């Protein structure tokens, strides 16, 4: 069910177009702003290669939110927004101990690691386990390609 | 409702007539290029919650094994030496750590790129080419 290997030339082309649009050779930007612009264009290029994948759509949603925030909110309000996103953890009461079995421990470990994976892959919160594995495979392929493209660019500029 | 569709450039998108009236009015009011990004999302938004509850089909053992072997193939080859050491906990852990390391590398590379682009005054031929690409 999986798709073709991502072409690095297409990625590079989209990446450079995005960088040009953001006008990064402008000397007026600070290092941090330029770095954010580079990351943004890289993520956009990565997501636009695979438009049908779920992680790609979730990534685009995330990017469009960041894009809006950059143009709409002035920076002094950002801490208000980020504070609103934190979820307060409840108090953990003591639970009665049960006899521990190896399979139960294994399941618990797998569940915890699956939660970590859900946090890492964009859009992972909304997928069931089978799609999560599929999307992870796809996302890994593209992430590797993106890293290769950026390494190439850095090597060319040094 | 025809006049809403006619003077709206988003009517050209493939799901414009399927979108409820609310979305059409949103696009009419907030027509910006940002919505091109959202254009990809609407199928996902409309069926996003649908996926969790209805597609609970039985995953066969074979599919899981196939996915596991593919994931092994993608991870860096430091571990596997022929023997079948595919426990799912280890696999998930290696995947997570690999994704994290790739994220860190992207961060580091974008730092270096940002510095290099800002100090791109050296006149080598490659720098000239890249500078012309980026203008």
From TrEMBL, chain A:
Stored Pfam families: IBH1_N
Listed GO biological process terms: regulation of DNA-templated transcription
Any one Gene Ontology molecular-function term assigned to this protein's record: protein dimerization activity
Keyword entries, A-Z: Transcription, Transcription regulation
Domain IBH1-like N-terminal: 12-66
Highest taxon above the source species: Eukaryota
Record family assignment: Belongs to the bHLH protein family.
Protein name in the entry: IBH1-like N-terminal domain-containing protein
UniProtKB/TrEMBL annotation, chain B:
Keyword Membrane in annotation: yes
Matching SUPFAM superfamilies: HLH, helix-loop-helix DNA-binding domain
Keywords of this entry: Growth regulation, Membrane, Transcription, Transcription regulation, Transmembrane, Transmembrane helix
GO molecular function, one term: protein dimerization activity
Transmembrane annotation, as ranges: 25-48
Ranges where the BHLH domain occurs: 48-102
Family assignment from sequence similarity: Belongs to the bHLH protein family.
Name of the protein this chain belongs to: BHLH domain-containing protein
